[in-house]
Structures are given as C-alpha cells and as structure tokens.
Amino acid sequence: MSADPADRIEELTGLLSRLPGLGPRSARRVVLYLIRRRGTLMAQIARSMEQVARDTRECRQCGNVSMDELCAICANPARANGQICVVEDLADLWAVERGRAFRGRYHVLGGTLSALDAVGPEDLGIPRLLDRIGPESVSEVILALNATVEGQTTAHYIADALHDSGVTVTGLAQGVPIGGELDYLDDGTISAALNARKRV
Amino acid sequence: MSADPADRIEELTGLLSRLPGLGPRSARRVVLYLIRRRGTLMAQIARSMEQVARDTRECRQCGNVSMDELCAICANPARANGQICVVEDLADLWAVERGRAFRGRYHVLGGTLSALDAVGPEDLGIPRLLDRIGPESVSEVILALNATVEGQTTAHYIADALHDSGVTVTGLAQGVPIGGELDYLDDGTISAALNARKRV
C-alpha cells in the first residue's frame, strides 16, 4: 500500500478532466477541494456514483433511466393517458418533466437520424415506438424534438411513419419564449411567432 | 430496490453541484454525461474517488497528502538537502513541484494566520515547523507564500519565529512573470521588478 498517492490523485484528476465543462486545471481544483473533504463529501460522491452506476438501466419500454425493467413513469398507470412525448435524450425528458405540463409517457430516441453517422430508425427505437401505439392505446404522439435541422428531419420521419396509424401527431409550438425580449430574438423565431399569432 | 432512480440521480446532482466551478445546471450536465457512460467512466471515477478518500491521509511531518505516516517526499532521503519550502496549501506544493526547481522538503501550513477567523500559529503547524529545524539539519527555510496581505503577514511571523534559530529565511523573488507583458502588469509588480533589477 505504499504506492505514491500522487499517482492515484493524478489518475482521478485525469478522469474528472474528461467531464463536460471541466479541464485539467478545474479538475485539479475539484480534486483538491475533495481531498480536504475526503471523509465527507468525497466519500458521499463516491458512494452515490457507485450506486447510480450499478443500479441504473434503461427502461425497456421508453428508454428513460430506471432501476427496474420499467421506469417510474411507464410503471405508473396514471401516466397512461394515451399521449406519448418523443424526446431526443434524457436531458430533454427532464426538461419536459420540469415543465410539469405533460402527464403522459415518453419515448427517448437517444439521438437523431443521421446519414453521416449511420444512425437509422432502428438505432433510435422508432420501430419500438410504433409497436407501442396499439398496446398502450396511444391517441397522440407529441414530437418534442429540438428545433435543429437534425431534430426536424427526425420529426418528419416519425410523422411519416405514424401517418397510417390513426394517431394525432403534434409538435411543440414555436414562438417567443416566456420572458423573451423581441429585440434579442432571431428573425426566424419572430416570423414563426407572427405566423402562429393568436387572438388575445 | 424500486426506489425512484430520479431521487438517486437528484442526490448525485446535488452533491456534484457543491464542487467548485459547478452549479446545479453544469452538475446536471455532468450527471447526464456520466449516466451515458455508467459502465465505464462513471464506475472508474467512483472507484478512484473511493480509493483516494479511503487511503489518503496527511503526512505526519509536512502535511502533504500521503498514504503512509510519511509522504513520498519526506520518506525520500534524496530530498533531505537542508531546505524546507513553506507553502500555504497542497495546491501551492503541487505548483512548486511542477516547477521542478526545488529538491528539498515542504511544510504545508493549511492556511494563513487570521485573527478574524481565529487561526493561530498552532493551527498552521508553525511549532511543528520549528521542531523540524534541528532533527532535519535545516539550513534554509523558503517562504513560498502567496503575495497577499494574509500570506505576507504569515511570512513575517514565521521569519520572526525563526530569527534565533540560525537558519537562512528566504522568500520568492517578485518581478515580471516569464512571458508577461509589461503593459498588462500592475504597478506594484513593475515597481518590485525595477527595485530588484539585475545586471544582465
């Protein structure tokens, strides 16, 4: 046990510097901070990370994180309201959940269609989505995909695939964000908001 | 084992958001990134952190991190050259080591004297430093303390305490940093560099 602790600390710094938003310098700062709190915060983080890494899996049905075969949302009968919200990844699912406006279920694609990266419909679980329509009596599929070219291409593909299934396919409204100032918005958003204007 | 994984993930996000440089949003981004790599990077970080938290202690002699009673530097007879470099904390020790110019031993204070925070000489291990002078045949104590008011107050106190011990007490030179542009330097640094000018 007389290995140089500097090696271990160096190893930990190297691992942490691979995280988004951290570089070699900020990783070193984090490690120093943790070493000063090694009995408390550091041990807690290590334990928590180990648990999450060990117990987290993907929901067989929707692709959300879960600790069982089915995630908490898919296992909750109150969320079976005939709506499925299609999102690109987990971060988007969390974003929609934070909004508290949606009470149905999700379908996490895990990416967008991309010919360049050879990502096809099967990689995104789109056949799995189509298979859910009947058994879950889905009446509406909400495409909550990013307003990027890739997101919109994927949305078009899914809308096409659902065309003959009889479900309503909707997309998020585009317009001025709450609290947004017109002066700072791009032209495309203003045009979209104008075209979709509503009687007040 | 059917606890909502969201709780565990929330807990991990909360812990990570306490790290320097990370807020709630960047912690969430890190957690998402880790969940996607839960079998590889996340498990590695958890293991590495757990080892460092478990095995790291403070060197009995100098206060450096160590896995034994004595740190690698104190245990290395080649570093017993009669010089002790006094630094404020571990980060400063690492900074001096990266410079590769110093081949003696260290003394980590763990802070600076502060009447406001009730940090006295005993809290900084200054008596322990004085006790090292004789047994380690120390001939020079280099005060590598930060050029702040607190750092310089502490340096003065240590220099006073060592006054009758017969060791040479030195401090880091002040001047223009390597690669520094005069135009961007503060007036104090330029005055210090002028006053300490050397024949070339």
Automatic annotation (TrEMBL), chains A, B:
<dbReference type="InterPro" id="IPR006171">
    <property type="entry name" value="TOPRIM_dom"/>
</dbReference>
<dbReference type="Pfam" id="PF13662">
    <property type="entry name" value="Toprim_4"/>
</dbReference>
<keyword id="KW-0233">DNA recombination</keyword>
<keyword id="KW-0227">DNA damage</keyword>
<keyword id="KW-0479">Metal-binding</keyword>
<protein>
    <recommendedName>
        <fullName>Recombination protein RecR</fullName>
    </recommendedName>
</protein>
<dbReference type="Pfam" id="PF21176">
    <property type="entry name" value="RecR_HhH"/>
</dbReference>
<dbReference type="InterPro" id="IPR023627">
    <property type="entry name" value="Rcmb_RecR"/>
</dbReference>
<dbReference type="Pfam" id="PF02132">
    <property type="entry name" value="RecR_ZnF"/>
</dbReference>
<comment type="function">
    <text>May play a role in DNA repair. It seems to be involved in an RecBC-independent recombinational process of DNA repair. It may act with RecF and RecO.</text>
</comment>
<feature type="domain" description="Toprim">
    <location>
        <begin position="82"/>
        <end position="177"/>
    </location>
</feature>
<feature type="zinc finger region" description="C4-type">
    <location>
        <begin position="59"/>
        <end position="74"/>
    </location>
</feature>
<dbReference type="InterPro" id="IPR034137">
    <property type="entry name" value="TOPRIM_RecR"/>
</dbReference>
<dbReference type="Pfam" id="PF21175">
    <property type="entry name" value="RecR_C"/>
</dbReference>
<dbReference type="InterPro" id="IPR015967">
    <property type="entry name" value="Rcmb_RecR_Znf"/>
</dbReference>
<keyword id="KW-0862">Zinc</keyword>
<keyword id="KW-0234">DNA repair</keyword>
<comment type="similarity">
    <text>Belongs to the RecR family.</text>
</comment>
<dbReference type="InterPro" id="IPR000093">
    <property type="entry name" value="DNA_Rcmb_RecR"/>
</dbReference>
<keyword id="KW-0863">Zinc-finger</keyword>
